[in-house]
Amino acid sequence: KAQAASVDDLTFVLNDDGKSYSVNGCISTAEGKLDVPSFYNGLPVTGIANEAFYYCTQLTSITIPNSVTSIGSDAFYYCSNIKDVYISDIVAWCGISFDNYSANPLNKGANLYLNGKLLVEVVIPDSVTSIGDCAFGGCRSLTSVTIPGSVTNIGSSAFRGCKGLTSITIPGSVKSIGAYAFYDCSGFTSITIPKGVTSLGNYAFYNCSNLTSIIIPDSLTSIGESAFYICSSLEDVYITDISKWCGISFGGSYSNPLRYAKNLYLNDELVTDIVIPNGVTIIPGYAFSCNNLTSITIPDSVTSIGYSAFENCTNLTSITIPDSVTSIGSSSFRGCKVLASIT
Question: Which end of the chain offers a freer environment for a tag, N or C, measured as fewer CB atoms within 10 Å?
């Protein structure tokens, strides 16, 4: 028979430091709302162990105290009925070390409450320097997030599955955006990646299915595997430097937003005829898979054209390739159905 959840349903283990405890388990029949205590046996509760609430399917809400700094792997795996998560300090929450996505009680689409108030529009405090892995992953209530200039990193799965999130302000202080960071954030329609970001992790914007435009900074040097996979509504990609664009390491065909986008803009002007700047030595794989391109001129400095570099440029009619090019990758011009002139 199910019973109302209470601290008596929890088991605890003394941590290695001998000065704190972690929640080690919870009886699976506990139901309703559960408050994790800040102290046990006079010592702070600083952790929640691996699989501590595994398959606690009858829990509907949980309170996590500020004292908790780490939550282990799959701690809230298949806690499918948790609808509400309560915290009292957003800085402490951003600092929790979550072992994986299922370590966060928000992961099944729960609402997050701060001091009893539903979090909808969040302004992260200036004292936060990193948005930790999985910090807001799965949160149903968020619609907008403002990240301060103190933050340098957005962790893996940080906002994964936040389907109601429609806007986010990312400051120029951010250098990296982790894998799955905005995975399945289907509420986005436009994104500006600020100058300063150097890398996008694997699947970073996977299934942002309503995203129509994105601004890519010159600072970006790598985009991970399938970073823009199923971003099928993309129309416009904005860049400011062709040379820098050619310097990006793409992790595959779906790492490039142009895979779906129809239009490439250079300094806010629609590009149809591209002249690759002199000094570029390699045109990387997947670099210009773009519908609106009609002609391309490649300089003598280029020695190789990567695989699928111009794949599916369906309006490309002419291209000039210099003698300096010694290798052309597979599928480089696949799908270029109207290509009529090759010099």
Answer: N
Phi and psi torsions of 30, nearest 5°? -60, 135
CA distances 172 to 121, 149, 178, 326, Å, are 21, 7, 16, 39
Sign of CA dihedral 105, 108, 112, 118: negative
Mean pLDDT over 199-210 rounds to 97
- φ, ψ of residue 225 to 5 degrees: the values are -55, 130
User: If we measure between CA atoms, which residue out of 75, 150, 63 comes closest to residue 108?
Assistant: 75
Instruction: List the beta bridge partners of residue 59.
Output: 32
Collapsing DSSP states into helix, strand and coil, what is residue 245?
A: helix
pTM to 2 decimal places: 0.93
The set of residues, in sequence order, having a beta carbon less than 8 Å from that of 163 and lying 6+ positions away, is: 109, 140, 184, 185, 186, 187
Asked if residues 287 and 246 have their Cβ atoms less than 8 Å apart, the reply is: yes
Amino acid in position 2: A
Q: Which amino acid is at 342?
A: I
Identify any residues that bridge with 15 across adjacent strands, giving them in sequence order: none
Decide if 198 contacts 176 (C-beta within 8 A).
Answer: yes
Which residue's structure tokens are 């270029």?
336
Q: What is the pLDDT of residues 100-125, one digit of tens each?
A: 999 999 999 999 999 999 999 999 99
